[in-house]
Every structure is written in C-alpha cells, then in structure tokens.
Amino acid sequence: MTPYLSFNRDQWSELRNSVPMTLSEADLIELQGINENLTLAEATEIYLPLSRLLNLYVEARQSRNSVLHRFLSNSQPAPPFVIGIAGSVAVGKSTTARLLEALLSRWESHPKVELITTDGFLHPNEELESRGIMRKKGFPESYDVKRLVQFVSDVKAGKRNVEAPVYSHLTYNITDEKKVVDRPDVLIIEGLNVLQGEMNSNRVFVSDFLDFSIYVDAETPQIKQWYIDRFMKFRQGAFTKPGSYFSHYTELSQQQAIDKASSIWDSINGINLESNILPTRERAQLILKKGSNHTVEQVLLRK
User: Fold this and answer.
1) Which residue(s) pair with 81 in the sheet?
2) β-strand 186-190 against 81-87: which pairing, if any?
3) Which label site among 14, 124, 243, 270 has the fewest CB atoms less than 10 Å from its CB?
4) How far apart are the first and last CA of the chain?
5) Distances in whole angstroms, Cα of residue 230 to Cα of each of 12, 45, 110, 174, 237
6) How many CA atoms lie within 13 A of 295 on its CB side?
7) Is 88 strand, coil or helix?
8) Ramachandran class of 243: left when φ > 0, alpha when ψ lies in -120 to 50, beta otherwise
9) CB atoms inside a 10 Å sphere around CB 213
C-alpha cells in the first residue's frame, strides 16, 4: 500500500486539460539551471498540469477564506497560499521553483507570486566559521531557522513589506541586499530542508506553514553526476568572475576538478542528502521523479 497515486508522463500530461502554454522557448532558457535543458515539451507535459492542480488548490483556499471572512464580517486580506519545494543540491528544484512562479503568475485568480529561497537564511560565513560548521553549510544547523520561520509567519499573517535576506552564490555568503515581499497571492519557498519537521516537537518549522509541498527527486548516483557536471560548468563560468569565492578551483586540471567535485559531494552534499533531505521526501504532497536526462519520468501525488 502507498499513500501516493502514481502517474507516468503520458498519464500526467493528460491532466493538463487543454490549459494553454503561455511561456516561449526563450522564456524557458531564462528559467532553466546551468546544467539543464528545459524543453517546451517538459514544461507543457509536466509543469502545466502541475500549475493547473496548484491553481485549483489556490482557488479552493480563496473560496474558503471568503466564506470565513463573510462569517466573521471582516475584510482582512487573505493569507497567501504557501508552496514548499525541496530536494537535493543539483537536482533542479530551483528551476522547478522559477518555472512554477512564471506559470502560476499567469493565472487570473492569483497573479502576484513571489519566490524566496532559503539560502538567504543561512548564517553568514563568519558565524559558521565561529561555530566550526563551515563544512556543514546547507545542513539544518547552518540556517537561522528562527529568522526563516518568523519571515514565513509574517508573510502568512498578511504583514506588509516583509524583508528576506539575499544570498550570493558568487561570494558564497549573505549580502546586504533585501528582498521585500508584500502580500503575495502565492509564496513559493525553495530550499533543501523546507519539509523538515519533528514528530512530537513543540518547535515550529517552515513545513508547518505550507499549503502544498513538492519534492524533486532522482536516484542519488544520478544527482551526484549532475553535481559534478554543474561544478565543471561553473569552473568555466561563475568561478572565473571577479570576487568568486571558488576562483581557486579554476587552477585545477580537468581531472583534479572532477575529483574535487566528487569529494565535496561524498563528504558534504551526499551526507546531507541521505541524513537530512531524503528522509523528508515522504512528507511531500507531490514528488517529481527525474530520469537521467533531467526530465520527469514519474509523478507521485498524495491521495
């Protein structure tokens, strides 16, 4: 027995129900990650049905809020519908988040969609260094969970102009920038551990605020290979930019760089995946299972 309904690509694509594709191939190029090839077919067959499902969830929540407001005779703004997207480093969850943001913002009933990544709520490098956990960046203990939970709580409560810190992948640290979120219809939160929680705990987690949750999945050896491939592309691109935290990796030979990426995965990202991220997968209401070419081969939807 399983709590999920399982769909292959063809079965899931049929659930699109003639929803039109409003993005062009040029749009998809802007949305995809450095190591991905997001095709129009993938967006149409996988993400359009998903945007339709989420739209139905949002409309149902809006209808419920309308009933409640009539009953209470108040005119408070409806809280945003909060979507969490989790998964491993290099699995493509950021692309999924950006694509859903673009698609959901085109539905008339909820045009204001905001996307926040939990990277901004990592402790600054100086704090991680002082705690001796710099090599555990991305692990649950490397986040300012209290600040993250407060941010989501404030947005969910309908507060105006809530600020979120911004992370730079170039400098590998928190910046002085802030992203302002002002009463969106939909808030997407993307990050490694957004589905984290504990049974029988009095602590509050981000997962407590989610109205819908998605886990982007693939076999671990495949994700490791994607991580290495991405590392090698960064080595030719982002790592060469002035101010890059990882500029020293450009001095490695091709094989040395591959070995280094593999070592980083084995000693950090792979451990985090197996110990902290993968155990949250079954918390998700929907799982996108990817194959070797980054395309989704199976969709699991909680009954």
Assistant:
1) 186
2) parallel
3) 243
4) 12
5) 29, 25, 34, 22, 10
6) 14
7) coil
8) left
9) 22
The alpha carbon torsion through 234, 267, 243, 180 (nearest 10 deg) reads 90
State the Cα–Cα distance between residues 283 and 58, nearest whole angstrom: 20
User: What distance in Å separates the CA atoms of residue 232 and residue 221, rounded to the nearest whole number?
Assistant: 17
pLDDT tens-place string over residues 7-40:
999 999 999 887 878 788 888 888 887 777 788 8
CA nearest to 159, candidates 77, 90, 89 = 77
Residue 85 has, within 13 A of its CA and on its CB side, a CA count of: 24
**Alpha carbon 45 to chain centroid distance?**
20
Which residues are bridge partners to 288 per DSSP?
A: 216, 299
Burial, 59: exposed, middle or buried (Cβ in 10 Å; 0-12, 13-18, 19+)? middle
Alpha-carbon distance 178 to 297, whole Å? 37
Residue 119: CB atoms within 10 Å: 19
Tokens (6 digits) for 100: 């859903």
CB 103 within 8 Å of CB 240 = no
Whole-angstrom distance, CA of residue 182 vs CA of residue 61: 19
- What are the pLDDT digits (tens) for 215-254? 999 999 999 999 999 999 999 888 999 889 999 999 999 9
- Sole residue written with tokens 């902290």: 276
